[in-house]
Amino acid sequence: QSMDSTLRYIHNDSDLSTNSSFSPEEERKSKVQDVVPQALLDQYLSMTDPSRAQTVDTEIAKHCAYSLPGVALTLGRQNWHCLKDTYETLASDMQWKVRRTLAFSIHELAVILGDQLTAGDLVPVFNGFLKDLDEVRIGVLKHLHDFLKLLHVDKRREYLYQLQEFLVTDNSRNWRFRAELAEQLILLLDLYSARDIYDYLRPIAFSLCADKVSSVRWISYKLVSEMVKKLYMASTPTFVVDLMNELVEKFCRCHKWSGRQTFVFICQTISEDDCLPMDQFA
């Protein structure tokens, strides 16, 4: 009963900083569970203590971060309160390799915890990773669709405004970052409405189609063709008509040969993938 009351206290809407007012006894109770031997869990949690990690093994925090989804799965979401503080400690670790490890597995942890705990405890960490180093951001980007599909529709729409930021990287030569963005946007088309696709994803797709690296452009042609297909099937026909008019204006009539070539390649992809009926294509 005391554990349940502590859990309710931790997960209510009060400011999380009030957790520091817990007495040592309450802190200890909040980490009690009956799934695995308590001594084993205590040993695992103690390994993430920053002072200990520095003196014993600098890699230990990374190993703890790698194992955390497995520990969470074993304990079950009802015992997440045992791991929450440790997860937040690791997510703010000074070593980028630790944060990168967590970024690559946050979508798995979201599946384990369910939508409520994800919204309350993982989304703030996820938002932090979005502003991190490219080495950390790529972990979030590679599984962007996997994470966003678990969020409530309203929460998911908030990220539409941030997708543009993935076009900016620490190193402009990091073209694989932009290629991954194009791949993820293809998957994200299923999560958003026709208006959201037209308003937010279309400008990013057009920017990627004009990328300096051919590998990025080829994935982007596929992205635009899938966008045409999605908008054609939408209930409002104006979006796909406007999109096709813009393709003609921006690429077909481009004064650079590379822009006109892009138009041909997009037409090829639309045709090959049957994204439009042929009369509409014509």
Automatic annotation (TrEMBL):
Annotated signal sequence range: none
Alphabetized InterPro entries for the sequence: ARM-like, ARM-type_fold, PP2A_Regulatory_Subunit_A
Gene Ontology cellular component list: cytoplasm
Molecular function terms, GO-annotated: protein phosphatase regulator activity
Keywords: Repeat
Protein name: PP4R1 phosphatase
Organism taxonomic ancestry: Eukaryota, Metazoa, Chordata, Craniata, Vertebrata
